[in-house]
């Protein structure tokens, strides 16, 4: 004889939803305005919080005992990546700001020491732009530079209408 559970709308065979007659899980239905969806709870000892290890009560798919544990776990998981991205973005913004300060008009020429003294890092740029002649500009967002020789750099500001007019842009 099948084991039936009494629900608000009648009897329901437990083996149809994957439970044996000796199961200690409870089945209930969360009735919303339109859809009824099953909510299955487990005994407290079967799962532990991924952050603190405390027993979890409630939904079967619950992974954390509280919002604080969920936030702690995710912050710890993403902290290394977040710090790296934050540091790279800070360097790129600083490079952009330095070129912006040294380029009062659309174009300027400066010596490498002027850039270096302000803390410019030549290893970081957002993309390169190669002209038809093969000249490679290095850009930090819309501000770029071109090494022209004798430790001088030609600084430019790219306007929106000049993009991809001639040459090829390469993302880094």
Summarize this, please?
This protein is α+β, with helices and mostly antiparallel strands.
Topology at a glance:
Elements: E1 4-7, E2 10-13, E3 26-31, E4 36-41, H1 67-102, E5 107-111, H2 112-117, E6 127-130, E7 136-140, E8 143-149, E9 152-157, E10 168-171
Antiparallel strand pairs: 1-2, 3-4, 5-9, 6-7, 6-10, 7-8, 8-9
Shape from CA axes? elongated
Count, helices: 2
Biggest beta sheet attributes: 6 strands, antiparallel
Spatial sequence of strands, sheet with the most strands: 5-9-8-7-6-10
Order of helices and strands: EEEEHEHEEEEE
Unreliable residue stretches: 4-12, 23-33
Mean pLDDT: 78
Backbone CA Rg: 31 Å
For the record, give the distance between the C-alpha atoms at the N and C termini, rounded to a whole number.
68 Å
By secondary-structure content and strand pairing, the structural class works out as alpha+beta
Q: Count every beta strand, where a strand is a DSSP E run of 2 or more residues.
A: 10
- Number of separate structural domains: 2
Percentage of residues assigned to helices? 10-25%
**Strand fraction band?**
25-35%
Structure description:
- By secondary structure, the chain is α+β, with helices and mostly antiparallel strands.
- It has 2 domains: 60 residues, no CATH class; 99 residues, no CATH class.
- 24% of the residues lie in helices and 30% in strands.
- Strands 5-9-8-7-6-10 form a 6-stranded antiparallel beta sheet. A two-stranded antiparallel sheet has the order 1-2. Strands 3-4 form a two-stranded antiparallel sheet.
- The longest helix is centred in the middle third of the chain and has 36 residues.
């Amino acid at each position: 004889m099948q084991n039936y559970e009494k629900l608000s709308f009648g009897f329901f065979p437990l083996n149809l939803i994957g439970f044996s007659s000796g199961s200690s899980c409870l089945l209930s239905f969360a009735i919303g305005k339109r859809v009824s969806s099953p909510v299955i709870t487990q005994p407290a000892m079967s799962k532990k919080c991924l952050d603190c290890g405390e027993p979890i009560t409630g939904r079967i798919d619950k992974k954390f005992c509280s919002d604080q544990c969920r936030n702690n776990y995710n912050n710890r998981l993403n902290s290394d990546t977040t710090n790296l991205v934050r540091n790279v973005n800070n360097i790129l913004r600083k490079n952009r700001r330095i070129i912006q300060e040294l380029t009062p008009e659309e174009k300027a020429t400066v010596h490498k020491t002027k850039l270096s003294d302000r803390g410019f890092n030549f290893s970081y740029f957002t993309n390169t732009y190669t002209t038809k002649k093969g000249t490679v500009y290095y850009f930090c967002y819309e501000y770029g530079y071109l090494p022209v020789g004798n430790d001088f750099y030609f600084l430019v500001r790219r306007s929106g209408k000049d993009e991809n007019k001639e040459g090829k842009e390469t993302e880094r």
